[in-house]
Amino acid sequence: MAVALPMESNPETMNKYLFKLGVPDKWRMVDVIGLEGEALTWVPRPVLAVILLFPLSDVYEQHRRDQENELLNKGLRAPKDVFHLKQVLSHVCGTIALVHSVANNTHNIELKDGLLKNYLRDAKGLDSSAKGALLENSEAILQAYKDIVYTETDNNAEANEIVNNHFVTFICKNGSLFELDGRKALPINHGPSSPETFLEDAAKVCRDFIAREPDNIGFNVVALVPAQ
Hints:
By secondary structure, the chain is α+β, with helices and mostly antiparallel strands. It is built from eight helices and six strands.
């Protein structure tokens, strides 16, 4: 099995990976340098997805457990038209975040024949756990990122890196803002949104993540947007 490597929140590397997976170069990841006001106006539109990188911590784990328990106790289920997969491997959350970003925007992104298009075809109709297992067994997808990282660094240090960060994706689907986290049982519906307000709505939720851990500086945000 291909080794899953931790991903950095680096748009340049992410874009090389997306292109290798079959995403046309008319779409790309860019940094979101601020989560309020004018900084958000600098992000090209339309924004298809927002990815937040944050530190794994006891605060996050407790919030995740409480949130999951509340949703499951209400008997909520994942919307059928929201593509969500469960994380299996410890180092694969970056790949999952990118897959979540693209898979929920195939009506905008015309995928080329290749690794991701094949995966999405094979994942059709599967539940989130089965989708995660399928990704774990998609060696070519994991190997594609490994090839990029090793080409750029020319060493194998990343394979043994201790990962203390995690990625989640935000998308706008059917008038709602969804948080897609491979460590959570369900997509999290954060309320109404629209393509026009999506970035601002996602930024607000990102600020909530940061507010829960005001002493932590390990947050970063990128967005999937049209190439300029």
